[in-house]
Amino acid sequence: MGFQDGVRRHSVIAALKNEQDMKRLECSKVEVCFLLFGEINTLHQTVNRIRRMGKQVYLHVDLAQGFGNDRAALKYIRKEIEPDGVLSTRTHLIRFAREEGLFTIQRLFIPDTMSVETGKHLLKQSKADAVEVMPGVVPAWVYKELRRNHDIPIVAGGLLHGLGDIKSALENGADAISVSNGEIWDLTF
Predict the structure, then answer these.
(1) Could you tell me the pTM of the whole model?
(2) Phi, psi dihedral angles at 41 (to 5 degrees)
(3) Considering the chain, what is the average pLDDT of its residues?
(4) How much is the average pLDDT of 145-164?
(5) Helix, strand, or coil here: 13?
(6) Neighbours of 22 (CB within 10 A)
(7) Which GO terms describe its molecular function (predicted)?
(8) Pick from 106, 104, 130: which is nearest to 118 by CA?
(9) pLDDT 10s digits, 48-80
(10) Quick one: which of 28, 145, 180, 187 has the fewest CB in 10 Å?
């Protein structure tokens, strides 16, 4: 089962920030999660714990403690941590991770019109397998522009406060949403 299958079956991705989120994840309908915390000495156990729950886990390499910003870190993550994939805001790390055979999610911040063009350029450079757009409450034309030359899954993340924001992001073109609010994880959209 891959990322696209997981988000097709359940379009809510759990963004895990701490141990309490891990406990809540176990009983949830979530199929895919983004691991936004952890450190080099315990990540393998954390990833295995999530897998035993029957969930896919994608490691946010920018937030994991104890790793450098280089190819050696991605090799180590692939061989020793063994997540289903990684996400990062750093284009070079996404490229390295793809070269190492990991599924990659490029995280893009879209605060203005110019950043949409920058985001399209970064996606072309990184050749990411998916993209997370932050904040997720961007207008529909942003999703259309990002999809124009890149037929990849788009995740809306950040500032999705209520059901209206979530429904809007999905109607505007996001394939899935990533949220840390565990009360939303089991909702179906």
Answers:
(1) 0.96
(2) -80, -20
(3) 96
(4) 92
(5) strand
(6) 18
(7) RNA binding
(8) 106
(9) 999 999 999 999 999 999 999 999 999 999 999
(10) 187
